[in-house]
């Protein structure tokens, strides 16, 4: 063997093979592992588990969209009556006759009864139509109309809050054996009249009451209940005394709570 020829049995040549082989093995192993992982993901995508309801809906839609076959008994009966695929039922002279069955619109939402979705849709359309008509009649922009609606809602809330505090004030007054409110409007109307008051005094009180808005009355009644009975409407609680009130109630406004 000449010096130029490499000895394939020498230790030097075998050492080179040992240096190269691990990288080849690793590259092949990684490639094979990636191929297996890719195939596994593809198979999982094909056989992904679906909920029973979803599979039922798919089967139902597939059946409804599939035309009946010639071996179907219904198809055989129609054929005897002269029906041919692609034509309409009845007289052939009717140009407007349909050639496809009317599709069924299924409601798959089990929480809504039959016809509910249609009724809800019609109700929303009526609401939008009424809203547009009111805006057109008042000649308001959408922003102006929304502002007007917010103000109306705020007024209703004030009246509601005032009525609740009036009932609360009456209960707390009666617990302290107070027979009549300090101001007639501190109690609900049915309980605020004094039997011994004269007509002139009552008329004068009513005139003064008219000068106050519901918002002003509500604020006055809030302050009265807090000062006299340590009651906070936002806490929904009557405290035992001033110390308990100061420690328990975070503040006089709704934002404080």
Automatic annotation (TrEMBL):
Single GO term (MF): nucleic acid binding
Alphabetical list of InterPro entries matching this protein: DUF4187, G_patch_dom, GPATCH11
One Pfam family from the record: G-patch
Chain residue ranges for the region called Disordered: 192-212
Domain of life according to the entry: Eukaryota
Residues of the G-patch domain: 70-119
A cellular component annotation (GO) from this entry: kinetochore
Sequence similarity: Belongs to the GPATCH11 family.
Descriptive protein name: G patch domain-containing protein 11
Source species of the chain: Clunio marinus
Top-level taxonomy: Eukaryota, Metazoa, Ecdysozoa, Arthropoda, Hexapoda
């Amino acid at each position: 063997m000449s010096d130029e020829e490499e000895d394939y049995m020498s230790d030097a040549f075998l050492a080179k093979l040992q240096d190269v082989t691990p990288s080849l093995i690793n590259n092949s192993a990684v490639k094979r592992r990636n191929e297996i992982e890719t195939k596994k993901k593809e198979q999982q995508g094909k056989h992904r588990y679906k909920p029973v309801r979803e599979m039922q809906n798919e089967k139902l839609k597939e059946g409804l969209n599939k035309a009946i076959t010639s071996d179907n008994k219904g198809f055989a009966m129609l054929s005897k009556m002269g029906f041919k695929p692609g034509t309409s039922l009845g007289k052939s002279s009717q140009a407007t006759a349909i050639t496809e069955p009317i599709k069924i619109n299924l409601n798959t939402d089990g929480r809504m009864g039959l016809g509910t979705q249609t009724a809800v849709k019609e109700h929303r359309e009526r609401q939008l139509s009424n809203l547009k008509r009111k805006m057109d009649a008042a000649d308001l922009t959408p922003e102006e109309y929304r502002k007007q609606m917010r103000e109306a809602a705020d007024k209703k809330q004030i009246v509601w809050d005032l009525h609740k505090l009036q009932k609360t004030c009456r209960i707390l007054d009666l617990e302290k054996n107070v027979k009549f409110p300090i101001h007639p409007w501190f109690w609900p109307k049915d309980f605020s009249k004094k039997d011994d008051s004269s007509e002139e005094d009552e008329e004068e009180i009513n005139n003064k009451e008219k000068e106050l808005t519901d918002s002003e009355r509500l604020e006055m009644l809030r302050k009265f209940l807090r000062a006299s009975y340590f009651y906070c409407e936002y806490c929904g609680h009557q405290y035992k005394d001033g110390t308990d009130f100061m420690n328990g109630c975070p503040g006089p406004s709704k934002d404080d709570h």
